[in-house]
Design a protein that fits this description.
It holds the Pfam family HTH_17. InterPro entries: DNA-bd_dom_put_sf, HTH_17. By secondary structure, this protein is mainly α. It is built from 5 helices and 3 strands. The longest helix is centred in the first third of the chain and has 22 residues.
Length: about 110
């Protein structure tokens, strides 16, 4: 099968070739690939219940510590923070990093 002239199919636009035609199957495959990539990004970046920024009260509740302890952690540089308009915020990833820094590895031996 041969294609008709450029003018018949494209109304004066660029010439259309058979391999440039997008089929329904192509669109379905593209949709599935796109959905897989979006799902992957969402899973990597948005964990259920984990917010990116936490207020002081949320951090105290999460760590079960007093306001004074949290203040000491800020002063000693143990936990980075951001202050905006008098409110102090902590990044969830920084809290996780603090836990990893303070992790104690215990080697258990079977006697």
């Amino acid at each position: 099968m041969t294609l008709k002239t450029e003018r018949d199919f494209n109304y004066g636009r660029e010439k259309l070739y058979r391999e440039q035609i997008v089929t329904t199957t192509d669109l379905v495959e593209f949709k599935n690939d796109l959905l897989q990539e979006l799902s992957k990004i969402l899973v990597e970046n948005f964990k259920p219940g984990a917010k990116k920024w936490l207020k002081s009260a949320e951090v105290r509740k999460l760590l079960k510590i007093s306001p004074g302890t949290l203040q000491s952690m800020r002063i000693n540089g143990e936990l980075p923070f951001t202050k905006v308009g008098g409110m102090i915020f902590y990044e969830y990833q920084d809290i996780q990093k603090m836990f990893n820094r303070n992790k104690v590895e215990v080697n258990s031996r079977l006697d």
